[in-house]
Amino acid sequence: MPTLALIGRAIRVSVFVLLCVGFATRSGAADPPNVLFIAVDDLASTLGCYGDPLAKTPNIDRLAASGVCFLNAYNQLPLCNPTRASVMTGRRPDEIGVYDLDRHFRDQLPDVVTLPQAFQKRNYLAARVGKIYHYNVPASIGTDGFDDPPSWNQTVNPKGRDKADEALIFNAEPHRKISAALSWLAADGRDEEQTDGMIASEAIRLMEANRDKPFFLGVGFFRPHTPYVAPKKYFDLYPLDTVSLPYAPPGDRDDIPTAAFAHNCPIPNYNLDPLTLRKATQAYYACVSFVDAQVGRLLDAVQRLGLAENTIVVFWSDHGYHLGEHNGIWQKRTLFEQSARSPLIIRVPGAAGNGQPCRRIVEFVDIYPTVVSAAGIEAPPKLAGRDLATLLDDPLATWNGRAITQVLRPADDRLDTQVMGCSIRTSRYRYTEWAEGERGIELYDHRADPLEFENLAIKPDARHRAVIEALRAELREKASGKIPSAAVNPARL
Q1: What is the mean pLDDT of the segment spanning 372-392?
Q2: Is the pLDDT of residue 350 over 50?
Q3: List 49, 69, 104, 134, catalytic entry
């Protein structure tokens, strides 16, 4: 017969095991984990956690400090619709046939299972607030935009005072719509009156209403997309005398192919004066801090609702953004580092790598397989990316990553035909070719030249010729430099 002491010991061990199991299930081993999927529009790596000395982003920085901040993450095509379609399907642009702002990925892959659909199949609520798929900004704010209805059980489309205040927006280029121009407004009123403030509020409401069942919640903020609209207090964070334009050496453009410069910014700095450009930069950073505050509200709600230990948080921007680099490039649509590189932070409860940055090269097609894996959901076949679980556990793990980014140029007064540009980024190099090299090639050594000022492909020595040959072969395995057969609207590239 067992003694009372042995019985007592057995009870204590059983209780301990149950407590451990309970913790494990909250971390996702048994209970389905929630997913908070935060997208930001046109956000460059202008964040404190990415080393930007000007940015005031305490909330995104604290997310990075509690998750894994991928310092070298690259989007597949630096334009809103193609990159978002690629992220949400886990496929590359050539596979989904999306290169412009008009084509839907289901035109080519009608039965593809999107990331939120994979969660719906496991009885999750899949809800969207704001911009996850493409929207025309600001015209489509308050609508479904260019959405994918099968992806969601529920959608919410807030519309704030920024829409009503559009007449007050300053446009530095009146010949352009405010959606494409350097345009801004230091707005009156509270955060919660702006569309992005309302998006945060609605997302919090959905978390409160669904805290007891698993959810995949896509929360998409519209800023800092033009027009740069944020409450005045965020502009005050960046006095003009602290804002400067980026450095580039004289003649920086001399060794860059014509096709490398985006068709929407053919004239350096849009021919605007330095003061106007600095004001635009101030407005951009104001929007970054405004969005940061809304991300903070989401993170606070996750903690307040007791969801932190069972919620995967993914933070990403659709692509990077230029603020005057290379003597006057603005916005997106290039294959330079500032446009191809994008913020990506992933926090999986219990991951051993949480709190550590990761410098390995990763791609945005890696997001889909990583999120379903972290949630214990089987990935659909034919995903293009890799599960980042290894790096979430050990950000220093051997990885040998490669990132492929491409962009399609329309025919214009600079180019007599459409030109596809394709770029591969390794831990040391970026190699880019335009029309499979017929319209130019570029090679940058990031170990010596992180700002991509010296194009080593102009007069390559034997070593750099060998690098070019090796990277060309790798690049062409993943992306085609030919003019695509898929339907393209040249006016929407």
Answers
A1: 97
A2: yes
A3: 134
